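Hey, can you fold this one?
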Amino acid sequence: MSIGELARATNVKIVTIRYYEQVGLMPAPARTEGNYRAFNTEHSNRLQFIRRLRELGFTLDEVRDLLRLSSEKSQPCDDIDRITNAHLATVEQKLRDLKKLASELRALSKRCKGGGRIAECRIIEALTP
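Sure. Predicted structure:
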């Protein structure tokens, strides 16, 4: 399939596919006689795996490690567990940070009575050092 067909099939932009090729996440496809990329089902499956990992917030380095590990079928999954648990810890920390931010924004919002002028805005006042 062409790069456009692969992009449509996987819902990944062409520029992203080219980038993943460039950084080594996607193997280089065969070329047609006209020197166009010719992708196959393996490329599509790999790209969908990468896209799902990225949707879950894994970094490119984590994706690279998980791709490498996923091809080592007979090995124990300890490293995959380690990467996943580290990512989970990062996500949980971000959630705590976001909850704290939401609380701070609620408190700021309550300071505003609305209808006033910016010069009298309690939110701006609270944010100004």
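The mean pLDDT is 92. Let me know if you want another pass with a different chain boundary.
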